[in-house]
Amino acid sequence: MKRIFAASLIILNGLCSAAFASDMKLAVTTSFHNSGLSAILLPEVKKDLDLTVHVLVVGTGQALNLARRGDVDAILVHSKKAEQRFVQKGFSPYRREIMYNDFVLVGPSLDPALIGRTGNIGEALTRIKSSGQPFISRGDDSGTHRKEVSLWKISGFTPKKFSKHWYKPVGAGMGAALNTASAMNAYILTDRGSWLNFKNKQELKLLYWGDEILYNQYSYLPVSTEKHPHVKMTEAIELENWLTSSKGQKMIAEFRIKGEQLFVPNAKSSP
User: Fold this and answer.
1) Predicted confidence band at 13 (pLDDT cuts at 50, 70, 90)?
2) In terms of C-beta density within 10 A (0-12 exposed, 13-18 middle, 19 or more buried), how is residue 8 classed?
3) 242 in Cβ contact with 49 (< 8 Å)
4) Distance CA 117, CA 123 (A)
5) Nearest CA among 102, 99, 92, 87 for reference residue 226
6) Tens-place pLDDT, residues 106-136
7) Core-most of 66, 77, 170, 178, by most CB within 10 Å?
8) What is the pLDDT of residues 48-74, one digit of tens each?
9) d(CA 140, CA 171)
10) In Å, how far from its chain's centre is CA 139?
């Protein structure tokens, strides 16, 4: 009888621990995940908050769709205009900026389009198009893809009209797109974090960066409980507070690959 009682206590204690442990679903961009930062931050979140964050790695467009349907509790994305529309339509109460890095152009080390000698992003893209050198586009409605399309348009071009002989959408995440660019020795727009963490560079080289228009802001948006009462707002806010805390921001600032900082924290005290 005592053994049965003891076993019952063990089971009950296990159930209580499970009941107190919390979890949530967070959709993040492939560029954020590919940088390796999530693997550094989330174990600390688990240790500090006893919060398990289940990460869904998708493009920004897919992340917004998941949040719109209430399939996740929060998103971490990088497409400001789309985020603002998302908030305006009531799918999130606000967007909160967390950190930023920048977009860069990489391509063949010999740089046949000579973009490394250009003075602005418009001139760099014009040279790629004029040269007919292969350019890999993510083509997946991600934040990076949206940024790429906007840069072509600012430069006076419409990607939908480009010849597939040189302009090649892959419909995939940043890692897969970079692998394609590496295999084809092609030009590609990528975020700096993914590029620094990319292991299969082969003949690719960082060729163009530094233009102010290449600034890349990442923001956190909890999903609205008014639209989806079932979402875990408490857990989403706990994660947000941790990411914007002095510890979270310090860890983001200190994350480096080969001595180079990948992200700059810039969270404000309130949304």
Assistant:
1) very low
2) exposed
3) yes
4) 9
5) 92
6) 999 999 999 998 989 999 999 999 999 999 9
7) 77
8) 999 999 999 998 899 999 999 999 999
9) 4
10) 15
d(CA 259, CA 119) in angstroms, rounded, equals: 27
Mean pLDDT (whole number) for 84-100: 97
Show contacts of 30-33: CB within 8 Å, 24+ apart. Answer: 30/57, 30/58, 30/59, 30/142, 30/173, 30/174, 30/175, 30/194, 31/78, 31/142, 31/143, 31/144, 31/174, 31/190, 31/191, 31/193, 31/194, 32/76, 32/78, 32/193, 32/218, 33/57
The per-residue pLDDT for range 153-167, each reduced to its tens digit, is: 999 999 999 999 999
Region 177-193: mean pLDDT is: 96
**Tokens 């009888």 found at:** 1
Report the chain's mean pLDDT, rounded to a whole number. Answer: 91
Which residue has 């000698």 as its token pair?
A: 117
Closest CA to 29 of 196, 221, 173: 173
- Output the pTM of the full model: 0.82
Domains of the chain: 2-100+217-265 (3.40.190.10), 101-214 (3.40.190.10)
- First CA to last CA across the chain, in angstroms? 57
